[in-house]
Q: What sequence folds into this?
């Protein structure tokens, strides 16, 4: 059974894309077939995974069609790029900015617009155990299309006030679209990303998040600031068992993904 998960927050720069990519990479290491959909015209997730394929796995990148090209052709398989064992990518490009105009030009009502991407994803997703969708941090058709196509949402919460406000607004919108379309999508949890490890501000924001979302909805795992994550943007995702910084990064994401899977199992019971 395929699980489709969107990572979200209406505040940019909170680590949403980084966590979407690291979730996908970690799931693939667990022999779970995983697809990452870069549904953001900025294409940061695409850049990171293509850099990884080129620099780490030393494989040439064949970028024949972008995600938007495949959407127009109504065949997402045309855009699929294998990155490593068990990990594939639907790559973004700046042409994806035209997605909303494309929907407006071809469909009259919001229901059809918001369900169009889900229709395209149906014949593709069954080849995977997990599909992770990365979206822009705005309320738009990218967000709505991803939520309609998803089973679960993980809110990425950087421990700062604006990120908390963005997370609260995201959950409000999730509840609204859930009711509007009678969706099965559920909030899987809120993943705290510490701005400064263990600072008073971090603790204050986490306590406020508990008041907003309840303690049960916060992941026990917390992603600390790690310079190695920033380095991955330049080098690709390295996974050297003799490099303590690589080991720390992959250890914490293994914990996060283990908890993610546990939460899914609990909800599906």
A:
């Amino acid at each position: 059974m395929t699980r489709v998960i969107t990572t979200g927050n209406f505040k940019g720069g909170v680590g949403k894309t980084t966590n979407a990519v690291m979730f996908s990479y970690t799931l693939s290491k667990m022999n779970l077939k995983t697809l990452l959909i870069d549904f953001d015209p900025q294409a940061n997730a695409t850049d990171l995974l293509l850099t990884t394929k080129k620099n780490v796995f030393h494989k040439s990148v064949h970028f024949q069609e972008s995600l938007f090209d495949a959407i127009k052709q109504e065949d997402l398989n045309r855009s699929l790029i294998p990155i490593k064992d068990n990990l594939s990518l639907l790559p973004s490009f700046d042409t994806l900015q035209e997605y909303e105009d494309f929907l407006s030009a071809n469909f009259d009502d919001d229901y059809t617009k918001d369900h169009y991407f889900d229709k395209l994803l149906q014949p593709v997703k069954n080849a995977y155990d997990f599909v992770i969708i990365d979206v822009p941090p705005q309320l738009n058709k990218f967000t709505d299309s991803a939520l309609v196509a998803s089973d679960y949402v993980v809110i990425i919460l950087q421990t700062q006030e604006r990120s908390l406000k963005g997370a609260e607004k995201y959950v409000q919108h999730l509840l609204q679209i859930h009711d509007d379309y009678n969706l099965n999508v559920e909030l899987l949890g809120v993943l705290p990303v510490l701005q400064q490890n263990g600072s008073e501000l971090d603790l204050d924001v986490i306590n406020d998040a508990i008041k907003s979302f309840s303690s049960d909805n916060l992941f026990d795992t917390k992603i600390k600031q790690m310079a190695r994550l920033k380095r991955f943007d330049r080098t690709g995702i390295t996974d050297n068992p003799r490099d303590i910084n690589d080991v720390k990064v992959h250890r914490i994401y293994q914990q996060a993904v283990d908890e993610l899977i546990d939460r899914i199992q609990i909800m599906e019971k």
Notes: The mean pLDDT is 95. Residues 240 and 246 are 6 Å apart (CA to CA). The beta strands are 3-8, 34-38, 81-84, 87-90, 130-134, 152-158, 186-193.
